[in-house]
């Protein structure tokens, strides 16, 4: 994996309206994470990492507090993860992660994005086998041996470690996220994680060119406009 790591999660923070959409998506994800794993970040490392990312993305404190308060109530919407896979413009591979309280509405909306851009919505597993579902933790440092030793002592399954430009980047299977983060903080103290996320990394890239580039941009804009869509992963390269 090494230097092939690139963030294929689409950024939507381009305009004030887009930022509002990001706040909404964070609020929904925080609510679901807190409701399922507990509202205390000390005992819910997934929530802790999510809150740290939200703050770095300048999500207002009142948005975060409202989502956590909503989770404390125990009621509210019953959101569930919905994942869709398919082939986008230029035959690139695409994974769309959603949080939805109405799966029928969500799949209809996502399918519309595919059909309107000459793309093809596939079945579950049609492209995800060509991605690595990874937890990625990046922080300032240069002693990768010490990092690897700390992770091995905690019996963390390490996929790869990158040491470049004064930053250590650790890759593990997504199921090892909490264990890996706990091992690093136990060993090295309160780390400022510059990268702290779980995402799908493509094993191969697909060149997208010509008219497909504009169609791909339209495709991504349509998906990002959907409230239920949380993240979009792809292997398109231009």
Could you characterize what this model shows?
The structure is a single chain. With 238 residues, this protein is an alpha+beta fold. Helices cover 40% and strands 24% of the residues. The chain is built from 7 helices and 10 strands. The strands form 3 sheets. It has a 4-stranded antiparallel sheet. β5 and β6 form a beta hairpin. α1 packs parallel to α3 and α5 (144-153) packs across α6 (177-188). The longest helix is centred in the N-terminal third of the chain and has 22 residues, at 16-37.
Q: Radius of gyration in whole Å, from Cα?
A: 18 Å
As residue ranges, the low-confidence spans are none
| Order of strands in the sheet with most strands | 3-1-2-9
Q: Write the element-wise H/E pattern from the N-terminal end onward.
A: HHHEEHEEHEEHEEHEE
Using DSSP, what is the number of strands? 10
Q: Determine the N-to-C terminus distance.
A: 20 Å
Descriptors:
238 residues, alpha+beta, four-stranded antiparallel β-sheet
Quick summary:
The protein has 7 helices and 10 strands. The strands form 3 sheets. Strands 3-1-2-9 form a 4-stranded antiparallel sheet. A 4-stranded antiparallel sheet has the order 5-6-4-7.
Topology, please?
Blueprint: H1 16-37, H2 45-56, H3 61-72, E1 80-87, E2 93-100, H4 103-116, E3 120-121, E4 131-140, H5 144-153, E5 160-164, E6 167-173, H6 177-188, E7 195-202, E8 206-207, H7 211-224, E9 229-234, E10 236-237
Parallel strand pairs: 8-10
Antiparallel strand pairs: 1-2, 1-3, 2-9, 4-6, 4-7, 5-6
